Amino acid sequence: MTPITEVEGRRLALSNLDKVLHPATGTTKGEVLHYYATVADAILTHLRDRPLSFLRYPDGPDGQLFFTKNPPPGTPDWVEVAEVPRSSRETGEQVLVQDLASLMWAANLVVEFHTPQWKADRPAWADRMVFDLDPGAPATAVECCDVALWLRERLAADGLDAYAKTSGSKGLHLLVPLEPTPSEDVSAYAKGLAVEAEAELGELVVHRMARALRPGKVFVDHSQNAAAKTTATPYTLRARAEPTVSAPVTWDEVEGCESPDELVLRLGDIAGRLERFGDLLAPLADPSAAGTLP
What we know:
24% strand; 7 helices; 16 strands; single chain; alpha+beta; 294 residues
C-alpha cells in the first residue's frame, strides 16, 4: 500500500520508498525524499519562480532516463504552473516548485531539477550567468578548478562576483548574480570570456563543443546562458550510480583541490555543509549582490 503523508496541508502519496535508486551505495527512494526534505530551504531558494525541466530516472541511472518540460500527467491542481515561451511562436506550461509540498511531490517522481537563468515573470531576462566547466579526460575537476580561478579573477575585473558549485558529475559550475539582463546579452558576454580564456589558457581551455578538441582540456560551456537552456539546480541530486549532488563549494576548496575526489559531494554531505557554511549560493537570490555587465 502506498503511504500517504501530509506536507503543509497537502496530502501526498509517496511510492516505492524501498526502491534502490543509486545502486553504488544502495540509496533508496525514501532516503532521497528525506534528503530533499532536509535541504528544502536551500533548494527552494533556487527553484522558486523558475520554470522547471525534469530529467526523470524512476528506475535509477541504469533505467530509462527522459527529459520533460511539460507538467507530468496527474500533476495536482495545487502545484503552480506558468505559461512560458518555448520558441518565438510557441508557449507551453511548466511546473513551478514554490513550497515544500510541491518539492516533495516533484521529488517523488524521481527527478533531476533543471532551471533556466531567468524567472517565469520575466522570460529571457537572466538574473544569473553560468559557466559549465566540463573536463575532457585525462583532465579532471582539478583542471576545472584552475580555470574557475582564472574566470573568477577575470569576472572580478569587470565588477562581477562568481560562486562555484560542483556539477554533480565531473566538473564545476560558476554562477554570477546579475541585474536582470537580456539573455542574448549575457550569452554574448559569456562567450567572449570563454574565447578569452582559451586565448589566455590555450593549453588548458577550449570554448567550442567539438569532442575532437576536448581531450585533456576544460570545455568552458557558455551556451547554457541561452534563454532556451537550463542548468542543474543547486542542491539537485544527479542520476548517477552514487547519490552525487550539484552543490556549492568554497573558494578555499577550489584553490586547494588536488584530487577530483575532493569535490565529489554526496547526499549525506549536504546537511552538514549547510549547517557549517549556510547556503554558499545565497547571494544569487540577493538583489543587492547582483552585478551589471560591462
